[in-house]
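Why does residue order matter? Because the sequence determines the fold. Keep that principle in mind as you read this record.
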Amino acid sequence: MRLTGIRQLDELVHPFNPGWVLELYGDPRVVLRVAHYTMAYRSVESTLHVLLNLEFGGLDTLYLVKLCRIFNCNLDNIVVSRAFKLSDTIGALEELSFKRSVVALLVFPYNYLSKNPLEYTEATRITGLISKIALSNQVLLFNTVSKFGRYRPEGGSFHHHAVKVSVKLTRRGDILVAELTRHPVRGYAVRTIHTTILEHPVRQHAEKTLLDWLVENRSRHYTQNFYEHTAIHRKHPLVQLVNNTRETSAQSTEPLL
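Structure:
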């Protein structure tokens, strides 16, 4: 069964039951690339309901269009919802729970959880809704590593029991390492994938975040203002008079030959 369109990943999770929740987690940048690849591949034949839990960014249309040219996909089959806070995430998941026979791509659904472990109970509510959606739909979950560890995915202990198949993605140079950490009928396994298949058409564009863009434009703005202020300062009559006086003094102190 082709789930992501990436052969090594699909082979790694085989056999797979459509009613199982498949989780891919790890470095957010790598996970997002795989999410885009999956969107393009699955939209050829299915309508996808994508829930993006990020305040900004995350959906790279330039990269998605490139992938759609490869797979000849249908962008109209990709329905995207964006959550800006925890209540938005829960509301969107509740709406998805009433859908039937759709493919749901949940991107970072635990992103808005509190960093305080004592307030981590909302993770259980999110996981419960994901399990409810999976009863009547196919769920592909794209997740990060837990805030309170280095290996297990975000979502807490209940989440660990709700997800049937889990794959950890780690980038090592030009190689993407996929580790099968959870599967009902298979043991631990590893596959390697060359990152060229996930390459962005414009590499610098892919690596630049909104914060980078703001800093760059702020620096350019300050530089431009500095040169404009310096130019105006040099044209001021008093400044020109002082400069002329300095030039005259320098000439008068030159040694006579």
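The chain has two domains: 7-202, 212-252.
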